[in-house]
Amino acid sequence: MATYNGLIKKLLRIAFFSSFLIAGVSILPLFQTLKIVSAGFYIWVVLIITGNIFLIWLINIFLVYVQEKYFVSSRQQIIRYVLSFVISVTLSGFFLLFIESFRLAEMYLPDEELLRIGKRHRLAPFFSSLFSNAFVLFMQEVVLLREKKSRIELEFARLKIENSRAVNQQLKQHIHPHFLFNSLSILKSLIHKDPDVAEEYVIRLSDFLRISISSNESNVVKLKDELKMCDDFVEMQKIRFGSALRVVNQISADIIATGFVPGFSIQLLLENAIKHNALTADAPLIIHMMDANGWLVVENNVQQKHSIEDSTKSGLANLSERYKILSGHDIQVENNGKSFKVSIKILNNANSNH
Predict the structure, then answer these.
(1) Backbone angles phi, psi at 38, to 5 degrees
(2) Based on the domain organization, do 10 and 114 belong to the same domain?
(3) Enclosing domain of residue 307
(4) Does residue 329 surpass a pLDDT of 70?
(5) What is the 3-state secondary structure (H, E, C) of 306-348?
(6) Domain stop point among 156, 185, 209
(7) How far apart are CA 211 and CA 209, in angstroms?
(8) C-alpha span between 81 and 330 (Å, rounded)
């Protein structure tokens, strides 16, 4: 409704200003065809033409109002065009004849000009109304088409955002159960090996899930919140692996304070590094997190496991798809056999969506 009211107001503004403009242009030929001394005649002509054009505008705006509110089919749009010409030409024609009845021309024109004009211009008001209505209708259709295009683009953008949110939410829901399944499997193993360590693991898991549930409400989260969740995740893994796992955070404080990333993005990279590498106290897995030129980099030494597990590709493909949806950027993956590095773009706000 607000958009529709804005359209009517826009048409009324155009009607007001264009009526004066058309009247001013229309009077120019009179300077060449009529020999008039008094400026009063020109003033009256401008006012009459302005009133006539504005009347035609009001008729067409009213017809648009009726069509937009009650009818939408293309057939009814043709009816609007026909009614526009019939009503506008009839009313504005009679309006001009009514004005002519005041004999303004006789007040200002010399007798020889009156004789020259004569009866051949008796139908001039109706022809003037016909051409004026065609011009007004053309201008109005241009405005309506531009407005319709804007509505379509706005609706398309809205649907695109809604679709992106739905797809992103689906991808996030795929991550969370996968992590929870792995965590419960680890917990089951710890319960048999060391109940005290298992209890600490449960506490860390509880904290992690509490933060992750709140983060799950947003597609993009503050970098500091994502890192806080990752701290809990890393502590959970250290309970399991001890000194075999080292995580070094070298991200600058100002980036942490102002940056945004998709939820679970860094946690996924940490989980992948741990999942696909061998960890021992003699050969620990070392993960570095740093920022470089607007990108957040997660890099680890490669210590390939002998056992065969699911490929890293599905998790990274998931993250890549989410990044494309939320920001238009893709992730960057580098593997030289000695180190494995993934770079993700640091976003500027929580509403990133292209």
Answers:
(1) -75, 135
(2) yes
(3) 194-345
(4) yes
(5) CCCCCCCHHHHHHHHHHHHHHHCCCCEEEECCCEEEEEEECEC
(6) 156
(7) 5
(8) 51
